[in-house]
Specification:
6% strand; single chain; 2 strands; mainly alpha; 6 helices
Length: 130
């Protein structure tokens, strides 16, 4: 009886793991981060690697903070997210990436990681490479 329970539990775990892997979100590997349509930029777009961030065990909801885990993942430049021009306010596109006081902005997170001695870009030219 004990053996039957162990085999049944093992099969349940394998089925659950398979279902979770099948339902996992497939993030694009590399992309360029850019502003919402119609917004001017003064620096080159940023090359972004989901692979490096996944390897660092960063949860999707750290950056995609409004994502419910079920619906389609939206970019920061999606209307009603960070689609406002300028450098002030939580919905400003610039703020989403450059706020030094936020752990969820690119620059804020990278500054924290840099303090831990890890090699991450924190300068303008390091992210906005020509």
């Amino acid at each position: 009886m004990h053996r039957f329970i162990m085999i049944t539990m093992t099969l349940c775990v394998l089925i659950l793991a398979s279902a979770l892997a099948w339902a996992a979100v497939e993030a694009p590997t590399d992309l360029k981060l850019g502003p919402p349509e119609g917004m001017r930029v003064s620096k080159p777009l940023v090359n972004f690697s989901h692979g490096k961030h996944n390897a660092a065990k960063i949860e999707c909801t750290t950056c995609h903070h409004n994502w419910d885990g079920k619906s389609e993942v939206r970019s920061c430049s999606t209307p009603a997210c960070h689609d406002q021009p300028g450098k002030k306010g939580t919905t400003a596109f610039y703020t989403a990436f450059h706020s030094k006081k936020s752990e969820t902005s690119c620059l804020g997170c990278h500054k924290i990681v840099k303090k831990d001695g890890k090699p991450v870009p924190v300068s303008c030219k390091a992210c906005h490479a020509k």
